[in-house]
Amino acid sequence: MKKLYTSLNLKKTLMLKALGVDYIEPIASFKEPEIALPNRLNELNELIKNCYLCELSKGRKNTVFGEGNLDANIMFIGEAPGASEDNSARPFMGRTGELLTKMIENVLDIKRDEVYITNILKCQPLKGKAPTANEILTCKPYLQKQIQIVKPKLIVTLGDMAYSYLTNDNTPITQTRGHIFDMQEYKVLPTFHPSYLLRNPSAKKEAFADMLKVKEFLKTI
């Protein structure tokens, strides 16, 4: 968060200098509420495209922002883009994307473009390395702003990491999946990540049950 604040202030300082301003008031000490991100998804996306706050920016082809219904009642959040997503600049492509689409369309009986889909990280993690806490925390304000703009009623987190960093709860996914947690402004239902289901087909039955709970929730809205 502090790195994002510093970067935004540096950008502002350089712009003022380019306009010929000789003296700039010293920047106040870091305060989280002073960070202002755009209130429109397209503007936030453009900001993220020009984000170089962590090492992941050096190896990416594209940032992967998110896609779907801007007024969606349901938002799906995964961990990070993979190679297919890095190439296409779209979330959940390839085999994991195909499975997620089936989970949405075959179980929830709605089109994929009726929900909103994104990840915590907006850049592909370095090859062979798990995302670091610093990388995730750097991207977290972007995700929080997406949630604030879309205003989903229910967020379905895909996998341990998405649930943990959204709720600050490190309880294993095997204990949290299928339960609905109240986060005041929205509710959260954790389930397995599609990539896990591809490696462990026997878990699809549990994921199916989780999606049925999502379907029941939609009926209450």
How is this structure best described in words?
The chain is an alpha/beta fold and 221 residues long. It has one domain (53-220): Uracil-DNA glycosylase-like domain (Uracil-DNA Glycosylase, subunit E, 3-Layer(aba) Sandwich). 47% of the residues lie in helices and 10% in strands. It has 10 helices and 6 strands; from the N terminus they run H-H-H-E-E-H-H-E-H-E-H-H-E-E-H-H. The chain has helices at 2-18, 41-49, 56-59, 83-88, 94-107, 133-150, 160-167, 173-176, 194-199, 204-220, and strands at 67-68, 74-78, 116-119, 154-158, 181-182, 187-191. A 6-stranded mixed beta sheet has the order 1-3-2-4-6-5, sandwiched between helices. Strand 5 (181-182) and strand 6 form a beta hairpin. The protein starts with a helix and ends with a helix. The relative contact order is 0.14.
Keywords:
10% strand; 6 strands; 10 helices; globular; alpha/beta; 47% helix; Uracil-DNA Glycosylase, subunit E; 221 residues
